[in-house]
Amino acid sequence: MFLASFLIGLREGLEAALIVGILVAFVHKRGRSDVLAKIWWGVGLSIAIAVSLGAVFTFGAYGLSFESQEIIGGAMSLLAVAMVTWMVFWMLKAGHRMKAELESNAAGALAVGTGWAIAWIAFLSVGREGLETTLMLWGWALQPEALLGALVGILAAVAIGHAVFRGMVRLNFGTFFTYTGAFLIIVAAGILAYGIHDLQEAAVLPGPFSGLPITPTDLGTGEVLVGLTDGPFWMAAFPFGWAFDLTAVIDPTGVWAILAKATVGFTPLMSWLEVTAWASYLLIVLPRFVAAVRRNRAAARAARSTMPSLDQAPVERASAPAATPSASPEQAPAKVLVPERNPS
Questions:
Q1: Helix axis angle, 2-29 to 98-112, nearest 10°
Q2: What is the pTM of this model?
């Protein structure tokens, strides 16, 4: 749990730190240090709103019924999966031009004159990262190790962002966001399974908690069918029974179970609908992510390969082949013949 929340806080915090660093460097370059305080106002307001939303989502649900809590939790989990997936692919597509777009927006904001427009840019840009972090960590909000991991990750991101801004550290952001993007996709699959479980507990989705006639049960014992072979026929437990039940082997409250849940979304007891959603998400999203990364790398290699030829092109056009004694008439440059004037 600590590791997963740490990496989420590190990635989201580093994105926010990168945005703030670009804005601060731009206003310094333009000689508009007078608007720095307004940028920090925008950043501070976005952080305050993200923390407030997290508090409302967490503590506001206590007065609700169990079913209502599970419905809100499941819906928030699905929203978090959608936002994380969008954010990962957006960074692959637009991350390389983020600096140019931010600077263009900042130039327009500075042209207004007051400087509050650039504070609005900082508020929206950092607020988006804060909202994503709040949604992803909401399910773990009451677990101290998760909150500690997220806080340490955010503080580490601030330190790295400051070091990069000061020129003390060089960081390959493309590699960083690629690997953390792959990790977040795996985490998002686990959040999706967690949300499905909440909605099944609230009886919004059919599953092991729905009861007869929806839930497949053993007619003799009344227990919910589990796995592939349990029941009167093959796959009788599918799709609304349990996919597996390992609670007798793995303690659901143990360290390994908690670590597996925080990283890959695995729990010792999962329904078929959870497993199907988890596997379907990874089978659809992960190959698309890998293909997008490969396209980006191929485009970068193609761009680097064309740079030398572009640099040499002006030299080649400017240089003309010089006539040498051994040059053939076909190779020699053409000469313009001017008839001589006769003095007489």
A1: 50
A2: 0.75
